[in-house]
Design a protein that fits this description.
alpha/beta; Aspartate Aminotransferase, domain 1; Aspartate Aminotransferase, domain 2; 7-stranded mixed beta sheet; 3-stranded antiparallel beta sheet; 13 helices; 12 strands; binds 4'-deoxy-4'-aminopyridoxal-5'-phosphate
Length: 400
Amino acid sequence: MTMLAKRMSVVKPSPSMAVSQAAKALAAQGVEVADLGLGEPDFSTPDHIIAAAHTAATEGNTRYTATGGAPATKQAVIEKFHRENGLDFMADEIVVANGAKQIIFNALMATLEEGDEVILAAPYFVSYPDMALMLGGKPVVVECTRADRFKLTPGALQAAITPRSKWLILNMPGNPSGAVYSEGELQALGAVLADHPNLLILSDEIYEHILFDGLQFNSFGKACPGLRDRTLIVNGVSKAYAMTGWRIGYGAGPAGLIRGMTTVQSQSTTNACSIAQAATVAALTGPQGEVARFREAFERRRDLVVEGINSIEGLELDAPQGAFYAYIDCTGIMGKTTPYGVVLEDDTQVTRYLLDEARVAAVPGSAYGLSPFFRLSTATSGDVLSAAINRIADAVARLA
Ligand code: PMP
């Protein structure tokens, strides 16, 4: 007997979660593992945000809120877009949900017809293709090369567009690549998109604040105002404010789309947690010092990992410009043989070898649609990262 719907046969659990579970299983056996699989800040949520949640709970802010977000939450989001991105939205152009992931899911749920195509720039965030598949869509993967710094080019975008194209999903800074688009690069993509008026654009900007080398963030919405009536900007508090567990994300886009997404929410999760919404107001409107402190820490770790990895023969890493991952090119060790006589034929075998031999949990590039690479999360202490890199170096040195 099969209980599950057919659609589940095309969906897989998140690979980064799977890697993390394998690492935890080893840890449970007493093996010390550096879990560089999962992408979440290792910092604590700033105190003033927790205090706001406490106040909300004790002062009775414990009931259902408006489906698309409490008025105060929407107002804080509106102010954030104005202040940080130079974008102005009305309340009916904003929706708040249980994480950026739910925003993306609701958007696809509200719009995809069976067989509609969703254009993804690989390496992509693991959930995009599976969400599309779950909802009857068809992921169309455009591989972005290291030479293009993992960024979608106007020519490649043009070539991927068909009459069935429904969405283009962009992610900047990118997970896992750390790729950051300049304003000009976004405008060049926008020029292609201008000729395809039925194509919707989802810009996932959740890593906005984790940006290095003094770069300024360019929101897709600001770079391409002419596409405003079909652009959904996705963001949230998980990464910037170390609030992954609070589950708050938000989206800004055309009122008709936002209405559809809010209806999906009204029949599924109702609203995001009232207390987490109050915490989000404090995060978005309160002091931003911690955001800068987190960013600096991530940049120092980025530097440490770039230097460490590039000192290992066979591995290469171009400095990511944002987010907290290292997407490492392992072409140089493909075809090599492990001490047990296994030939490394793909990046899944590489990550298995690293888990066994270096006790480092990493996610294979196959999970992100571009091989042979593996991803390390740098959202952990410099000491853990240094130890992990040393062990990777030793393990790679043992390959023949
Ligand atoms: N988008 C990207 C690119 C991500 O990396 C993540 C988290 N790994 C999310 C969205 C989901 O964020 P949230 O916690 O807000 O659901």
